[in-house]
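Posting this for the archive.
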Amino acid sequence: MGRSVAIAVSAALLSLNSAMVHALPRPQLNQRQTILEANRYLIADGWRPAPQQTPSPQERAIASVSLASLSACSGSGVGFCRYDYVREQQTLSVVTVPSDPGKPSVGRVERWW
């Protein structure tokens, strides 16, 4: 019985160690940096565009950038836009607000998850 417990504990530790090796840290973005700056950093860090949906022509105009990661923009209110990325098993969404509120303009990072 002691041997089977030791094997189970060893297997659990190996599994935990493997998960720790493969878990990549979340990106270090900065609030208010432009989505162009954030996109350059993310691509260099191994993230790839992975939009969750295809943005409409109106949403592309609101975003004012032609990034492949653009998923959607809100046509009213603050004018949030969402950009989605993937790296290995991780997903990342970045939300921006317009740099010139009320007008189509390059977004600035507001939050990410």
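The first helix runs from residue 2 to 22. The chain has one domain: 25-112.
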